[in-house]
Amino acid sequence: MRSRNPVFSRRGFSRDNGYAGFNAAPQAGGPAVTTQGNPYAQPTGNPYATNPYAQQDLQQGAPPQAPATTGMTMDDVVLRTASTLGTLIVTAALAWALLPVDDAHIGRSYGIGIGAALIGMVLAFVQSFKRTASPALILSYAAFEGVFLGVVSSVVDNRIASGAAMQAVIGTMAVFAAVLIAYKAGWIRVNRRFYGFVMAAALGFVLLMMVNMLFAVFGGGDGLGFRSGGLGIFFGVVGIILGACFLALDFKQVEDGIAYGAPKGEAWLAAFGLTVTLVWIYMEFLRIIAILNSND
């Protein structure tokens, strides 16, 4: 299952030609998981063939007990995600407290924040192309990204809109909760068509923002105006919607990874993906809040 984020791609939980969940992902109350399309399936189709205790249970007429698993669990995903987000939040708080954004220091603080963002981007790309999850890389990415978010949030909160950071956090949490509820209730169906649509829309969005940035760098001002005024608010909302869609893809990735018995280490990939998506959504909320208050 290959999942992607709006900014950084990453390896998914299976190594076939498509999303594992789009091939034969198990559904509640549905048929048992088959080995077709499952990269973690055991060579034998009978998990009890070499388990003497299971064979004894069968001979005595007792229902067989599933063998102990070392695969990824939801607890693993929650713990790794909490560690990654916790690292990001701590470094963001430190950056906010230690890097002042008054007139005398804003240039230095903003320079440190941009430098941290570039380092975080490089670390994220390195992790995206690695075949295995690296906790050190993922936590380092979270730390540097936290420094960037701390500086940017402090600038917006102290110089543009008081309380903007908390409003963006609340908005991000609300989107996360809404998508999770909608996904668990079956209101969002993540399939190949959904994946294709989201990827096409995200690619178009990113390319458009890159063109706008190039015009801003070489032409001055805000480029084509996609990040200010009414257009800025519109594209900010589009960015949040895309982030919500990627959350659904992340939830599907986690669900399929658990169902197919992905190794425990893959939980770090889930934490990495969720963190990138939540940062994306937070930044879009912060941008919208800044635009709304700068127009007052």
Model description:
It is a single chain. This protein has 296 residues and is mainly α. The chain has helices at residues 20-24, 52-59, 74-98, 106-129, 135-159, 164-184, 192-219, 229-259, 267-294. Helix 3 crosses helix 9 (267-294) and helix 4 packs antiparallel against helix 5 (135-159). The longest helix is centred in the last third of the chain and has 31 residues, at 229-259. Residues 1-12, 14-35 and 42-68 have low confidence and may be disordered.
Short description:
By secondary structure, the protein is mainly α.
**What is the structural class?**
mainly alpha
**Morphology call:** globular
Quick check: average pLDDT?
A: 80
Measured by DSSP, the beta-strand proportion falls in under 5%
> What is the string of SSEs from the N terminus onward?
HHHHHHHHH
Please count the helical segments: 9
Low-confidence stretches: 1-12, 14-35, 42-68
Report how far the terminal alpha carbons are from each other. 46 Å
Largest sheet: none
Tell me the number of strands.
Answer: 0
Helix-residue proportion? 55-70%
C-alpha Rg (nearest Å): 22 Å
